[in-house]
Write a structure and sequence with these properties.
By secondary structure, this protein is of the alpha/beta class. The protein has a single domain, classed as Alpha-Beta Barrel (TIM Barrel). Helix content is 33%, strand content 17%. It has an 8-stranded parallel barrel, surrounded by 5 helices. Helix 3 (141-160) packs parallel to helix 6 and helix 7 (239-252) packs across helix 8 (276-284).
């Protein structure tokens, strides 16, 4: 019998009051033609809210910069039509008793200019998609300032239309993370060089957002060691390096760190059982979200073509929930983000709460095409 009760205790941070510790992780869906969320997008988020997700973090939303988008049909967080569409989403989620934050996104050198995206080239700290592979242009200081302003304006607009918080996408090898990562940041100005300097672009985005949204509007930052360009990449090899990276972001005003790992049960540094979220909490004292294959069973095949073997690594579904509950209870992390399992099964939270584990749906890639 699993005791999931710690996952269903309320969480409060300033004005952000959540009914439980479950967060819906951001997942790109490309179901917004012209960048405008439609009625299907409204229904998709409302369905998770009515099934007791504590906080919904939306799919990545493009900030208002000419090179921000990397994929067609990804929703924007700028322009009257897109903001009106998001207002419908926010109102529907609130009507169902949920809370929601947009993830603000610039893809950087992942962008491939062409017929679907237009001729504007990609931009990034040093014009690199990954070490040794150029793509697009290295950003000038004016480019940097424009992008920072685009993030700040998107956050201000999000607050204006009723979102409960914002998340900055600083993970997985996209623009903000390209500044963080030594492999794609060869700058010799204030944004390049040491690990602390590489954190400054993200910190300046946080500062600009804070100036626009005020002191009481929560800012979440998602970051990762791994990159889509290199699953083995690391920003920090030791706790001391991680602290050096995190300190400027804490000082800038991050309220919650969303610590993206591919498997939540994997430890981060030798000699400790803490994962990335646990170490981030230890080093900053800030609330943290853990994420990484929560709710996926041993039938799921990961990107390497190998089974996640949850039955061996973290127990069967009820066992993995027990582990998460125990770690929340111990204070290792406050919040738990669920991605693909919630995409597959909108009722995942209510089923886990009632310990109806035999009713949970196994994830399949076909579910990526679910409309709602």
């Amino acid at each position: 019998m699993s005791n999931a009760s710690p996952l269903f205790e309320p969480f409060e941070l300033g004005p952000l009051s959540l009914k439980n510790r479950i967060v819906m992780a951001p997942m790109t869906r490309t179901f917004s033609p012209g960048g405008v969320p439609n009625d299907m997008v409204v229904a998709y988020y409302a369905r998770r809210a009515e099934n007791e997700v504590g906080l919904i973090i939306t799919e990545g939303t493009i900030v208002g910069h000419k090179a921000a988008s990397g994929y067609p049909r990804v929703p924007a967080m700028y322009g009257d039509d897109a903001l009106a569409g998001w207002k419908k989403v926010v109102d529907a989620v609130h009507d169902k008793g949920g809370k929601i934050a947009p993830q603000l996104w610039h893809v950087g050198s992942v962008r491939k200019a062409g017929k679907d995206l237009g001729d504007t080239p990609a931009c990034s700290p040093s014009g690199l998609f990954k070490p040794g592979k150029p793509n697009g242009d290295a950003m000038t200081k004016d480019d940097v300032d424009e992008v920072i302003e685009a993030f700040a304006q998107a956050a201000a607009d999000a607050k204006e239309i009723g979102f409960d918080a914002v998340e900055i996408h600083g993970a997985h090898g996209y623009l903000v993370d390209q500044f963080f990562w030594e492999g794609t940041n060869e700058r010799d100005d204030q944004y390049g060089g040491s690990i602390a300097a590489r954190a400054e672009f993200g910190a300046d985005i946080v500062k600009a957002i804070r100036k626009r949204v005020g002191d009481d509007f929560p800012i979440i930052l998602r970051f990762s060691q791994w990159k889509q360009q290199d699953y083995t990449a690391r920003l920090a090899d030791t706790p001391a390096e991680l602290k050096t990276f995190l300190d400027p972001l804490v000082e800038a005003g991050v309220d919650i760190f969303h610590c993206s790992t591919r498997r939540f049960w994997e430890t981060e540094f030798e000699g400790s059982d803490l994962n990335l979220a646990g170490w981030t909490k230890e080093l900053t004292g800030k609330p943290v979200i853990t994420v990484g294959s929560v709710g996926l069973d041993s039938s799921f095949i990961d990107e390497d073509g190998a089974s996640l073997a949850m039955s061996d690594q973290a127990g069967a579904e009820s066992g993995s929930i027990q582990q998460l509950s125990d770690r929340v209870s111990k204070g290792e992390f406050e919040l738990v983000a669920v991605g693909r399992a919630l995409l597959q099964d909108p009722e995942w939270v209510v089923k886990v709460k009632a310990e109806r584990f035999d009713e949970l749906e196994d994830f399949s890639k076909a579910s990526l095409m679910k409309l709602v």
